[in-house]
Amino acid sequence: MRINIDDDEYITASLPKIWDIAHGLSGFFHKSKEGVLALTNKNLIFVPRFLQLMSKEREKYFGDDKAKVTKLAHYSEADLDEDISKNSKSWICPLNSLVDAESVTIRKVNFLRITFKDKKNQLKKYDFAITRSVISYPQRQPLMYYSLDWTDWINLLKSHM
User: Fold this and answer.
1) What are the phi and psi torsion angles at 65 (to 5°)?
2) CA 18 to chain centre
C-alpha cells in the first residue's frame, strides 16, 4: 500500500544523480542535494538519494549531452514511495501547480528551471543539473556542472501542465 503517492499513479520518467538548487531566501538556507527527479502522471517529485552509476548507465540517461526521458531501471513506484517516506527533504509538486518549465543558462551551463506554486500559493523556483565534480568534505556539494540539453524534459513537463 502506498502512502505518499496514489495507487493509480505511475512513473512517466525519472533521472538519477540530479542536483536541486533552490532560489530566493529559501535557497540561502537550503543546501543543494543529489537525488532522483521523477515525473509521474500526477506529480513532479524530487527525492534526495545517492545512486552509483556506471559509465554505460550514465550514457542511457545523459548521452549526447541531453537529459533523456527514460525510467530508472529497477526503480518502481513502491521504491519511490518508500524513498519519500524515508527522507523528509523530499518534495512533491502536483502538476497542476506548475507554472513554468524552462532551460536557463548560467555561466555557460544549462539548468532545468521549474517554477511552481506551493501550498501557501507562493512561487518557488528550483534549478536542476548534473555535476562534473563534487566536493565531499565537510558536506557533499557540487563544484562544476555539465551543460545539458533539457528540451525533451521541458516538452514533457509542458505537456502535463
Assistant:
1) 55, 35
2) 6
Query: What residue numbers bound the domain in which 17 lies?
Result: 11-160
CB 133 within 8 A of CB 143: yes
Question: What single-letter DSSP state applies at residue 150?
Answer: -
Q: Do residues 91 and 35 make contact, with C-beta atoms less than 8 angstroms apart?
A: no
In 41-90, which ranges are E strands?
A: 43-48
Report the predicted TM-score, pTM, of the whole model to 2 decimal places: 0.90
Kindly report the CATH number assigned to the domain that includes residue 72: 2.30.29.30
Q: What is the pLDDT of residues 38-67, one digit of tens each?
A: 999 999 999 999 888 888 888 999 988 999
What are the DSSP E strand ranges found in 51-122? 91-94, 98-106, 109-117
The Cα 91–Cα 161 span in angstroms is 18
